[in-house]
Amino acid sequence: MTPDWDDVRHFLAVAETGSTLAAGRALRVSQTTAARRVAALEEALGVILFDRRQAGYLLTPAGEALLTHARSAQDALRRLTDEASLLGRSAEGVVRLTLSPIFAFTFMMPIIGDLRIAQPSIHIEIDTTEDVRDLAGGEADIALRVSKERRGAGLVWRLLTADPWTVYCSRAYAERHGVPRHMSELVNHPFIGGGEPGVWAHYQAWLAASGLEEKVIMHHNSSTGLLAAVRAGTGLAALPCLAADTDPDLIRCVPPLKEVITHLWLVYPERLRHEPRIRAVLDFLIARVPRFTG
C-alpha cells in the first residue's frame, strides 16, 4: 500500500514535537487528526512507528530508521516545489555574458542574435574584456572560458567542446601565394602575431616550438586586429578552430595542431543556475555553441 504524503507529513511533525497534540497545533489540525494520520501511515507501511506513552510519542527502532527517509522525501518535495515556482516565473531581465573577443566577433555573433529572437524579454550584455570576471562576486552572470583547470568556489563548469588550433590564411592570400599544406612549408610564409594575452600565450608558445617566431612580421595586441590582418591577406596566423572555421574568408592551411588543444567551458554561479533568465540563456548556449568535429 502506497503511503499518503499527508500521513508522512504528520509523522514528521509528531517525531519532531513528541506528541500528537503539539503536532496538531503545528499543522493546525486537531490532535485526533494527527493521531489518525500516524496510524494510517503505520498501516500503510506495516510497521509501528511510535510507542504511545502517557508522556508522549516515542519513536520505535522502525520509526527511527524511517525518519531519515521521510525527511529526505520532505526535502525533495520542497525542491520540487521551488523548482516549479522558478519555472513558472517568466524568463526576463538582464544577463551579463563575458567571453573572449575572438569568440564574440566570430561564431558567437549569430548565436547571440538568435538568442535575442528566441528570448525577447532577456537583455544580453556582452563583456569582451580579457580580464577574468569574478562570477561568484557578481561581476558577470555567465562566462565562456578557455581553460585547462576549473577554479572558483561556487561555480559550475560545463565542458562544451574541445577547441584545437591550426594555421589559417585568407582567400585573397591564397590566390597570390598559394596555400601551404604541410608544416614544412610554413617557414616560407609570413605570420601575423598577437591577440589578447589568453590568445597570444597559446599562439606564441606554438610559434616558438615550431621555430617560426622570426617569421612574425606584424603584431596586434587584440584578437580582432589579428583576425583583420589575416583577412586582409597580410599573412598567416594560428587561430582557434571554433572561431576561424566559421569565417568564410579564411582557409585552413594544415590539419589541427596536436600541440595546441584548448577546451571551451560554460561557467556560471551555482546560486544562479535555476534563475529563469539564466537557465534560458544556458540552455540556448548549450544547444547552439558548435562542437568541434575535426
Strand-helix topology:
Layout: H1 5-17, H2 20-27, H3 31-45, E1 50-53, E2 56-59, H4 61-88, E3 93-98, H5 101-104, H6 108-118, E4 122-127, E5 142-146, E6 155-170, H7 171-177, E7 191-194, H8 197-209, E8 216-220, H9 223-231, E9 237-240, H10 241-244, E10 250-252, E11 261-269, H11 276-288
Parallel strand pairs: 3-4, 3-5, 7-8
Antiparallel strand pairs: 1-2, 5-11, 6-9, 6-10, 6-11
Helix pairs in contact: 1-2, 1-3, 1-4, 2-3
Structural notes for this entry:
InterPro entries: LysR-type_TF_proteobact-type, LysR_HTH_N, LysR_subst-bd, WH-like_DNA-bd_sf, WH_DNA-bd_sf. GO terms for molecular function: DNA-binding transcription factor activity; sequence-specific DNA binding. Pfam families: HTH_1, LysR_substrate. Belongs to the LysR transcriptional regulatory family. This is LysR family transcriptional regulator. This protein is of the alpha/beta class and 294 residues long. The chain folds into two domains: 5-88, Arc Repressor Mutant, subunit A; 93-294, D-Maltodextrin-Binding Protein, domain 2 (3-Layer(aba) Sandwich). Helix content is 43%, strand content 22%. It has helices at 5-17, 20-27, 31-45, 61-88, 101-104, 108-118, 171-177, 197-209, 223-231, 241-244, 276-288, and strands at 50-53, 56-59, 93-98, 122-127, 142-146, 155-170, 191-194, 216-220, 237-240, 250-252, 261-269. The strands form three sheets. Strands 3, 4, 5, 6, 9, 10 and 11 form a seven-stranded mixed β-sheet that branches. α1 (5-17) crosses α2 (20-27), α1 crosses α4 (61-88) and α2 (20-27) crosses α3 (31-45). The radius of gyration is 30 Å and the shape is elongated. The protein starts with a helix and ends in a 6-residue tail after the last helix.
